[in-house]
Specification:
The structure is a homodimer. By secondary structure, chain A is mainly alpha-helical. Chain A is built from 10 helices and no strands. The N and C termini of chain A lie far apart (60 Å). Chains A and B meet through helix 8, helix 9 and helix 10 of A and helix 8, helix 9 and helix 10 of B. Chain A binds a DNA duplex through helix 1 and helix 3.
Chain lengths: 212, 212
Amino acid sequence: MPKTSAVLAKEPVRQPAKSAATRRKILDAAARTFRDKGYAATTLNDIADAAEIRAASLYYYFRSKEDLLDAVFGIGMQRVVDAVRQRSAALPANATLAQRIQVAIEAHLEMLLQQGDYTSANIRIFGQVPKSVQRKQLPLREDYAEFWRELLEKAQKAGEIRAEVDLGIMRMLIFGALNWCTEWADPKKGPVREIARQATMLVLDGIARRKK
Amino acid sequence: MPKTSAVLAKEPVRQPAKSAATRRKILDAAARTFRDKGYAATTLNDIADAAEIRAASLYYYFRSKEDLLDAVFGIGMQRVVDAVRQRSAALPANATLAQRIQVAIEAHLEMLLQQGDYTSANIRIFGQVPKSVQRKQLPLREDYAEFWRELLEKAQKAGEIRAEVDLGIMRMLIFGALNWCTEWADPKKGPVREIARQATMLVLDGIARRKK
DNA sequence: GTCTATAAGGTGATAGAC
DNA sequence: GTCTATCACCTTATAGAC
């Protein structure tokens, strides 16, 4: 909430930098704690401790615990949407399915495993969060789903994906393979790049050795 | 807790059928509620209501909320282990990788989506549950992982899985694709069989049309 | 076995001083 | 902006009657 301006002040209007920084600290703390413990098990005291303030001060920045959760979710989903769209847009227009899939998988996994707790919090705990918050997030989720839906549909129409593939089911299976990585993958123990490589391999060619 | 017997009674010792039935009702209610809302958000009153008793009565059957969770988890994991092992054992000794994978995937998905809330509760909320409960469940989980590890290792040694496949990563990606189904698949809206078919297709051959 | 009553402690949220 | 103090409520768990 920026000051409503002070037109006649000699000093340039100070952006409330400190306030913004505190807000960010709260969001960071909330994202990490929600991600690790889930929504219900996380208390405002947990978040306040991690953000180095008192629990009551949270209410200067957010109206309620649900509001804070909603903010974390929004940031997390927006980030993955932006990352995947941006990286895909950078591909040449004639890029193959294999290239497009690989780029999307890499971007998705990087946001999930390296970039931040916001996206992984969203992915991990979404299903066990108050329905009201889920509902508010649906448009953004749908936006992301739409990206993949288009990608896969175009590829199937172009003959790059076999006709027997049910795109609706397959898209969710692919999301599953990727999203589940929050449950086991540790970027400190192995490069995300290698996971992305194996995931791309799975999606495009499976694991079997055979002649198609 | 069965009666400690009454050797001289004319009537055969009555199994505490009513007690066992109540215990089962509690477990069923707990599995469903944990699955839907998560562990922390589920109160003992929620469970008691669904089981049609008072919350205090739960303590006649379980020492604590954690104990109840542990029981639900144990049943859920045991069921999927049994189902997958049993169905796999029924295959002929010379069954191919494709057949073995398909059978395991089908059994896993059926337990997850049709058979009960116990397995899906375990899969869904495991990551956001007290560490003490997670630790108690590890041996059983490891047991199940071992089944897949063996299946994949044998297949790769036999040349049925390409050498470039990292079995550790790939196993977790496959688990992800399957386990994520609890988040979106609805057996009422489409047959589990078809999801299993697509999942098997993904794992064995991916989605791309190309000559290997 | 199941209940009512209650303890002991924590929760999200608000009021108001500074 | 951040704090201390506090409220009203809900939680897990126990005690003891029936």
